[in-house]
Amino acid sequence: MPATLASHDDSTGASSGAPGVADVLKTAEDWRGSGRQVALATVIETWGSAPRPVGAHLVIDADGNFEGSVSGGCVEGAVVSEAIDVIDTGKPVTLEFGVADETAWRVGLSCGGRIRVYVEPVT
After folding, report:
1. Ordered alpha helix ranges (H), the chain
2. pTM for the complete prediction?
3. What's the CA gap between 71 and 122, in Å, rounded?
4. Beta-strand relationship, 66-68 and 114-122
5. Which of 41, 108, 113, 118 would staple 50 via disulfide (CB 3.0–4.6 Å)?
6. Residue whose C-alpha is closest to residue 2's, from 116, 95, 118, 117
7. 8-59: per-residue pLDDT in tens?
8. Which residues pair with 42 in a beta bridge?
C-alpha cells in the first residue's frame, strides 16, 4: 500500500544532525505537491548496534535526490537505488542490511547491527 503523508511532531534524528521525521515527511509532501515522484524509506526493525532508530525516514525522488537518513550514511546509496526501482514499479520492498550480510559491508554498515528498511511509493 502506498504511503500517505501525515505530519508528526517528532524530532527523531535531531541529535545526529539529520532532519526530524516531521521535516522528512513535510519534504515528501512538498515534493509530491510539486509533481515529483517520491518513495519513502522507513526503518522498521533494528537489532544490535543500529545507526538509526525504528521510525527513521529517508525520502527519495525519481532523480535520486533524497533527504533524511535510515542509517547515518551507511546504506543510503543502496536504499536510494532500490527506491528508484520502487518509484518505477509502484511496488514496495523490504530491505535488510546486517553485519553478516556481504551487501552491508560493501555499502558500509559495519556497526555490528542489522536494520530492516521498508521502501514504498508515495502517492
Report:
1. 21-33, 76-89, 102-107
2. 0.77
3. 21
4. unpaired
5. 113
6. 118
7. 333 333 333 445 667 999 999 999 999 999 999 999 999 877 778 999 999 9
8. 57, 118
